[in-house]
Write a structure and sequence with these properties.
Elements (H helix, E strand, L loop, with lengths): L4 H15 L5 E6 L2 E10 L10 E7 L10 E4 L30 H11 L15 H11 L22 H6 L7 H42 L3 H15 L4 H9 L42 H7 L1 H4 L7 H36 L1
Antiparallel strand pairs: 1-2, 2-3, 3-4
Helix pairs in contact: 2-5
Organism: Grammatophora oceanica
Protein name: UBC core domain-containing protein
Pfam families: UQ_con
Length: 346
């Protein structure tokens, strides 16, 4: 039974890494899952990751090599989050950049080269200080994985090459062009993402500003008037409630105060008769004649639209013409009757 193209390509990657090993990295699929690989890489010399050993997973899709994999780091490095699918230009986050000719070896070389690059806010990226990264690099050599090395240290998975084998290998990797391309695309994508986020934030601020201006425009003017009235009341030394009460209450009539003057000695006191209480006559309001009532009493006073009605005017003209024609006809008939009478007499 023929194998699928994905499995044939995975077996080709396994053979290629076995025939041409590197002391800088190691990778192999799990025994029970050919689409999940575990990798171990060394930190590049002259960087914050020098001396570090980093372990992780490569999750190949069923469509491999036509679709890119996901990368998950298991060793803390200060550059990538652990147990998170990181966003790089050769991962499934950027499938449009992937090429089917690329394989596991290119992925391992790219991971080493991407460790010292800036995080730039990518998914799963960290931007820790150099001191923290160097501290994590020292601790990473003791990392163990229970799945691929039976609980032993992952540093033991890296092959040890002789001096002759090291001398055969060129200092520059065979994937230098591809790595330069991937790093440039990574920088372009992150710059684009930052620009998009900035534009989104600016649009959100503009929308908020427009919404606030609309609220200010649509705010009822009654509140402004109320504030103006309150200000006037405050300037005159009265509270708004007192001002409203004074405006609503009608003026009270002034009643002359009676002064009890002392009665001279020997003069009997005269008792004043009680005055009846002063009652206010209710104010009568003048009846307001509504225009509708006046129009009902005299319909010719306001309703003059019939004078300008074209249909009515046309009917009047036609009636006048018909009356004139009947008048002429009657006059002609009278003249004929007169002539007939004259003819009979003669």
């Amino acid at each position: 039974m023929s194998k699928s193209p994905s499995l044939r390509r995975i077996q080709a990657d396994v053979r290629e890494l076995a025939l041409d090993p590197s002391e800088r990295y190691y990778a192999a699929p799990l025994e029970n899952d050919m689409f999940e690989w575990h990798f171990t890489i060394r930190g590049a010399e002259g960087t914050d990751f020098e001396g570090g050993v980093y372990h992780g997973r490569i999750l190949l899709p069923p469509e491999y090599p036509f679709k890119p994999p996901h990368i998950v780091f298991l060793t803390p490095s200060g550059r990538f989050e652990t147990h998170t699918k990181v966003c790089l230009s050769f991962t499934a986050y950027h499938a449009e950049l992937w090429q089917p000719a690329w394989g596991i070896r290119l992925i391992l070389e790219a991971l080493i080269s991407f460790l010292p690059t800036p995080a730039d806010g990518a998914i799963g990226a960290l931007d820790w200080t150099a001191a923290e990264r160097k501290k994590l690099a020292k601790r990473s050599v003791n990392f163990c994985c229970s799945q691929c090395c039976a609980g032993g240290k992952v540093i033991n998975l890296l092959p040890k090459l002789s001096d002759e084998e090291k001398a055969k290998k060129s200092a520059s990797t065979q994937f230098s062009k591809e790595l330069d391309f991937l790093q440039k695309m990574q920088a372009i994508n992150e710059t684009k993402n930052k620009t998009d986020e900035k534009e989104t934030d600016e649009k959100g601020e503009e929308k908020e500003g427009d919404a606030k201006s609309e609220e200010i425009k649509n705010a009822p003017t009654a509140s402004v008037d109320a504030k103006g009235d309150t200000g006037g009341a405050a300037s005159s030394g009265e509270t708004p409630s007192e001002t409203t009460k004074a405006a609503s209450d009608p003026p009270q009539p002034q009643v002359a105060e009676t002064v009890n003057e002392p009665t001279p000695a020997g003069v009997p006191a005269v008792e004043e008769e009680p005055r009846p209480p002063v009652t206010e006559a209710p104010a009568t309001e003048a009846p307001v004649v509504q225009p509708a009532t006046a129009a009902a009493n005299n319909p010719w006073e306001y309703d003059i639209s019939w004078l300008t009605d074209p249909m009515l005017n046309t009917a009047i003209v036609l009636l006048a013409i018909i009356c004139w024609l009947f008048t002429r006809r009657a006059h002609a008939l009278l003249e004929e009757l007169g002539e007939l009478k004259k003819a009979q007499v003669s």
